[in-house]
Automatic annotation (TrEMBL), chain A:
<dbReference type="InterPro" id="IPR000638">
    <property type="entry name" value="Gas-vesicle_GvpA-like"/>
</dbReference>
<dbReference type="Pfam" id="PF00741">
    <property type="entry name" value="Gas_vesicle"/>
</dbReference>
<comment type="similarity">
    <text>Belongs to the gas vesicle GvpA family.</text>
</comment>
<dbReference type="InterPro" id="IPR050530">
    <property type="entry name" value="GvpA"/>
</dbReference>
<dbReference type="GO" id="GO:0005198">
    <property type="term" value="F:structural molecule activity"/>
</dbReference>
<keyword id="KW-0304">Gas vesicle</keyword>
<dbReference type="GO" id="GO:0012506">
    <property type="term" value="C:vesicle membrane"/>
</dbReference>
<protein>
    <submittedName>
        <fullName>Gas vesicle protein</fullName>
    </submittedName>
</protein>
<dbReference type="GO" id="GO:0031411">
    <property type="term" value="C:gas vesicle"/>
</dbReference>
From TrEMBL, chain B:
<dbReference type="Pfam" id="PF06386">
    <property type="entry name" value="GvpL_GvpF"/>
</dbReference>
<dbReference type="InterPro" id="IPR009430">
    <property type="entry name" value="GvpL/GvpF"/>
</dbReference>
<keyword id="KW-0304">Gas vesicle</keyword>
<feature type="compositionally biased region" description="Low complexity">
    <location>
        <begin position="137"/>
        <end position="150"/>
    </location>
</feature>
<comment type="similarity">
    <text>Belongs to the gas vesicle GvpF/GvpL family.</text>
</comment>
<dbReference type="GO" id="GO:0031412">
    <property type="term" value="P:gas vesicle organization"/>
</dbReference>
<dbReference type="GO" id="GO:0031411">
    <property type="term" value="C:gas vesicle"/>
</dbReference>
<feature type="region of interest" description="Disordered">
    <location>
        <begin position="137"/>
        <end position="159"/>
    </location>
</feature>
<protein>
    <submittedName>
        <fullName>Gas vesicle protein</fullName>
    </submittedName>
</protein>
Length: 62, 269
């Protein structure tokens, strides 16, 4: 693909996809991102920014 | 030291070889595990990092999370160049190859159905930001604040209220315009995509991006039509003053894999 010059992917764009996208399968190690409440506490802003279910992207602003 | 298997993606067998030196999480080489006509792309990860307890601790560490996410993405990126991978969620880990095989057998049908649906498609990310200051609102937005040169001190309570109302109005107008612009753009792009998904807007503290993110969308687009899609996005850049449009991709279809799987998870299979 050459349509766009690839730049370093922003971490936040990556985490949008890796923490909220991708096929969820219960592996042998049954820890999944969604199950880790501790992560929600320490990385609160991060997790809420990628996992919150917001219908309209501008809904909670103003 | 006992190794665990980290699974990046499920693919159909592909002709092209992986880059010989392709590494993933923790710098371990990526390997292909063929089973039942499907391919799991895996690498070894150490138990000391990926067993349940250490993994739980690591996930609280943003630097570790970032490095792991980059390792994951490196493999997915390489796969995207040669096939249409079905990316798995970050940190999907099995004890050994036989665990991975059992998982493939349990989900075979889901994998095939999803791979068929995604075949030849990639994901594009489009974000819209409202710039902090627009030419029209800059004057009113800063009037009366301490930083705006000679402070336009309101002469009376009435003036103060007028100024405040004007500022609020400018702010409102800016959001209304942003809402309309983002809505219009989303409809336009959705019409040129096989599927669309809205991610929550990004937190500026994390993205360190200027302005306020008002649209954070992903679009599933056939590879062949990607060039056209990118052109459409490019044309909207600079169309609306005070709005910034950003494009990322092509990504593997991270945001479009969950349809078939949500059901099976609930069934507890």
């Amino acid at each position: 693909m050459t349509v766009v010059e690839r730049r370093e992917v922003a971490l936040v764009d990556l985490l949008d996809r890796l923490l909220a996208g991708g096929v969820v399968i219960t592996g042998d190690i049954t820890l999944r991102i969604a199950d880790v409440d501790l992560v929600r506490i320490d990385l609160n802003a991060l997790i809420s920014s990628v996992n919150k279910n917001v219908p309209a992207p501008w809904g909670d602003l103003v | 030291m006992t190794g665990l298997r980290y699974v990046y993606a499920i693919c159909r067998p592909f002709g092209a070889p992986l880059q010989a030196e392709l590494t993933g999480v923790g710098g371990a080489p990526a390997k292909l595990l063929h089973h039942h006509g499907l391919v799991a792309v895996v690498s070894d990860v150490p138990q000391r990092d990926f067993a349940e307890e250490p993994l739980r601790a690591h996930l609280e560490d943003l630097d570790w999370l970032a490095a792991t996410a980059r390792g994951h993405q490196q493999v997915i990126d390489a796969l995207t160049a040669v096939t249409t991978p079905l990316p798995l969620r970050l940190a999907t880990v099995f004890r050994d190859d036989s665990g991975v095989r059992v998982m493939i057998e349990a989900r075979e049908e889901d994998f095939r159905r999803t791979l068929d649906r995604l075949e030849g498609r990639v994901e594009w990310g489009v974000k819209v930001y409202v710039e902090a200051e627009t030419p029209e609102t800059a004057g009113t937005a800063t009037a009366g604040t301490a930083e705006s040169g000679p402070p336009a001190k309101p002469a009376s309570g009435r003036d103060y209220l007028v100024q405040r109302r004007r500022r609020a109005k400018a702010h409102e107008d800016s959001w209304l315009r942003a809402e309309r612009f983002a809505g219009r753009l989303h409809s336009l792009l959705s019409a040129h995509a096989d599927a669309a998904r809205l991610h929550p807007p990004q937190n500026a503290a994390l993205s360190r991006a200027a302005g306020q993110n008002v649209l954070n969308a992903a679009y599933l687009v056939p590879r062949k039509e990607s060039e056209e899609f990118v052109e459409i996005v490019d044309r909207t850049k600079g169309e609306e003053p005070g709005m910034r449009v950003e494009l990322t991709g092509p990504w593997a279809a991270y945001s479009f894999v969950d349809l078939e799987f949500a059901q099976s998870e609930e069934e507890g299979s």
